[in-house]
């Protein structure tokens, strides 16, 4: 960190062989780079200055296991869930995919009052999904989702075509932008006002090396900019040029930044706390330094996910390691992190009808 950073922490000598929870947390650099403290424009549901919204995910099974292991811990401020634009599944009722993982937005509404939902809409270039969305082929699904969202009566952060620039999604910018705008216009026409629209970059080498700006639908259509953080955090707090580009773009367009997906993909070992220094310290220090306004952490066993391209990802459940989990909660239980609360919606600027 340079001397221009605003420091809210102090150095402490640590026993590297037998670190306490306090020792582990003290390694997090809580400096905020003034460069990332800027005014936001044309956005919604942004935490107050000095606050970060805490979200956890990402399947019904992951969330249930998390709650079972950490009953004494505060409920996060929100939960993440997924669905796909071609069909209205996993929203109003549970849907289990071929891997055995389930999604259920409505369960999150019913079981967790005073929390938000971070909703990920799957939309890719393959199978002409994005093209069909832009042509209105899935309008009936969007209308059903709009009706559900209005009935939820809570802030919803909708990631339209999440990781739009990821090579794995094969999204052509023109088709993506057209589909994104069509979806937002339709939801607005349906009277949806409790959804913040999130433009989520993979923050890695982009599909066909298109420039980031090629996928941008415009300030009027974007409330938040988001990134994914997986392997990024293993090399320190410099997450690379592609991540830097997204953060600079967000600042130029006066948008808050969310880490929409994050996980230590090399796993959380049951018998070693090494992942804390190797990933968590960097990840959490980055969130302070870059003034990240929301983080979504995925606690899951990636080796059982059966997702193309991640065959080497490992078991990253927090409950694998009690000491790492204690350090995580020692940090995230700070007042900085917005969690479930009767005043959460007010803090986010949402007035429940």
UniProtKB/TrEMBL annotation:
Transmembrane segments: none
Keyword Hydrolase appears in the UniProt entry: yes
Active site, UniProt feature: 163, 261
Keyword Hydrolase: yes
Residues in GH26 domain copies: 34-322
Domain of life of the source: Bacteria
An example molecular function term from Gene Ontology annotations: mannan endo-1,4-beta-mannosidase activity
One GO BP: substituted mannan metabolic process
This protein's UniProt keywords: Glycosidase, Hydrolase
InterPro entries given in the database record: GH, GH26_dom, Glyco_hydro_26
Recorded family membership: Belongs to the glycosyl hydrolase 26 family.
Protein name per the record: GH26 domain-containing protein
Organism listed in the record: Winogradskyella aurantia
Taxonomic lineage of the native organism: Bacteria, Pseudomonadati, Bacteroidota, Flavobacteriia, Flavobacteriales
């Amino acid at each position: 960190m340079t001397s221009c950073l605003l420091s809210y922490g102090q150095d402490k000598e640590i026993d590297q062989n037998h670190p306490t929870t306090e020792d582990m947390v003290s390694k997090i650099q809580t400096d905020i780079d003034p460069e990332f403290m800027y005014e936001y424009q044309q956005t919604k549901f942004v935490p107050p200055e000095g606050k970060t919204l805490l979200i956890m995910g990402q399947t019904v099974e992951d969330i249930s296991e998390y709650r079972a292991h950490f009953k004494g811990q505060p409920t996060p401020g929100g939960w993440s869930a997924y669905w796909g634009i071609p069909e209205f599944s996993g929203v109003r009722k549970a849907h289990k995919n071929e891997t055995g993982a389930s999604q259920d937005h409505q369960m999150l509404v019913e079981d967790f009052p005073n929390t938000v939902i971070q909703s990920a809409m799957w939309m890719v270039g393959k199978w002409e999904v994005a093209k069909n969305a832009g042509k209105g082929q899935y309008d009936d699904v969007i209308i059903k989702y709009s009706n559900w969202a209005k009935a939820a009566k809570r802030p919803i952060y909708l990631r339209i075509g999440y990781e739009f620039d990821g090579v794995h999604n094969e999204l052509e910018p023109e088709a993506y932008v057209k589909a994104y705008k069509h979806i937002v216009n339709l939801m607005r026409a349906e009277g949806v006002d409790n959804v913040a629209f999130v433009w989520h970059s993979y923050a890695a080498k982009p599909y066909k090396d298109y420039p980031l700006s090629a996928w941008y639908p415009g300030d009027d259509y974007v409330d938040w900019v988001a990134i994914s953080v997986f392997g990024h955090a293993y090399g320190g707090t410099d997450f690379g040029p592609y991540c830097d580009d997204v953060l600079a773009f967000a600042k130029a367009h006066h948008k808050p930044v969310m880490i929409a997906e994050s996980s230590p993909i090399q796993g959380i070992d049951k018998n070693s706390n090494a992942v804390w220094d190797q990933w968590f310290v960097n990840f959490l220090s980055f969130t302070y330094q870059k003034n990240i306004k929301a983080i979504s952490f995925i606690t899951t066993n990636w080796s059982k996910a059966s997702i193309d391209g991640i065959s080497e990802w490992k078991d990253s459940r927090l409950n694998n390691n009690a000491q790492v989990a204690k350090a995580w909660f020692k940090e995230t239980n700070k007042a900085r992190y917005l969690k479930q609360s009767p005043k959460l919606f007010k803090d986010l600027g949402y007035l429940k009808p």
